[in-house]
Amino acid sequence: MSSPLDHYIFKEQIENQMRKNADKDLRQYEKTQTNHYDIIGTETKQKGNQTRRDKLAAEKNKDPKTSVFQDAKENYERENPKIENLKKDVGNKKAEANTAWNRIPEVYDSLTRKNIKINYGQERISYNTKYKAYTDAVKSLEEKTKEVKEYTDTMRMERIKHSKDLDVQIAKQDKEIDSLNIKLKNDNNTINVKVQEETDFVERLNGFDTKFMTLITHPNFGVQFLRWFIFVVFLVIEILPTWMKLVGKPREYDIKLASRREQRANEEEIEKQRDEEIAKINKTTDVESAQEKANYRKAKEKELHDKVTNDIASRYEIILTKKLNEWESKS
């Protein structure tokens, strides 16, 4: 009875609380939809895949951990420094061979008209020895260079293989990341659509019942106290005339109304007694009618029984008389 006044007095509080309730409901609805589509779980998977993808990409800049690569690397690190020593040895052997070459005496060749190195003597033997040492050093350098190159090629091939394997795994992670991105995008779009639909629905909830329930559940103590005070005032105003009428002296209208009620009660009592008497008479009449029907039925049954008995006796007498006459005639 005081609701219209309450809605007018607490209009601002009601509208403000309705907005708060709507925001709370929408946040809860969005949270529910987010949990339903497992957005956090999908984002966690996406972050995990991205982390694994970054680790795989970082592994591309590192050496493979295969035994083939590690063995080749160890051999390379052990044998590669020897090349510099062999190069130095080749240089030294070459210088010694050149020095020995320059020490070989020369003779004039009349055919070529040039000075040529003699092909005999201790100097020539020394040169041949130095030159052989030089060619052996060159051969050792070539063999070591070839060996180191094999280690280098092995490491390069292992790196290529390692990189290809990582590229396959990275492509797989990229595919999963793209799939999760598409799922996240679609799920977020679906949630946004549903939240917008829920927002439109909540915005339309501004009827009397919504305002009434908002006011009843309003958390502010002052609002609730004043609302109940207004309700009590209206309640007192409503029941005061009735209460005054109950505790006050009867008036002429009340006396006539009581007399009328008493008269109506007496009339109803008389009518009730008359109905009871009529029912009793009807019951008695029904009993007598039933008794008459029973007596009539018994009389009819007795009359029919006597008739049948007499008929049987008559027929039996005729048969006996006929038999007696036949017997007398034979005798």
Could you write a compact summary of the structure shown?
With 331 residues, the chain is mainly alpha-helical. Helices cover 87% and strands 2% of the residues.
Give the topology, please.
Elements: H1 3-9, H2 11-36, H3 39-59, H4 67-103, E1 106-109, E2 114-117, H5 122-203, H6 208-216, H7 221-247, H8 252-330
Antiparallel strand pairs: 1-2
Helix pairs in contact: 2-5, 2-6, 3-5, 4-5
Using brief descriptors, characterize the structure shown.
331 residues, two-stranded antiparallel sheet, 2 strands
Explain this structure.
The chain has helices at 3-9, 11-36, 39-59, 67-103, 122-203, 208-216, 221-247, 252-330, and strands at residues 106-109, 114-117. It has 331 residues and is mainly α. The protein has a domain at 3-214. It has a two-stranded antiparallel ribbon with strand order 1-2. α2 (11-36) packs across α5. It is elongated.
SS-derived structural category: mainly alpha
Query: Strand sequence of the main sheet, in spatial order?
Result: 1-2
Q: Could you name the ranges where pLDDT drops below 50 across 5 or more consecutive residues?
A: none
Quaternary state reads single chain
Extended strand count: 2
> What proportion of the residues is helical, as a percent range?
over 70%
Mean pLDDT: 82
Distance from first to last alpha carbon: 123 Å
Total helix count? 8
Strand and helix order: HHHHEEHHHH
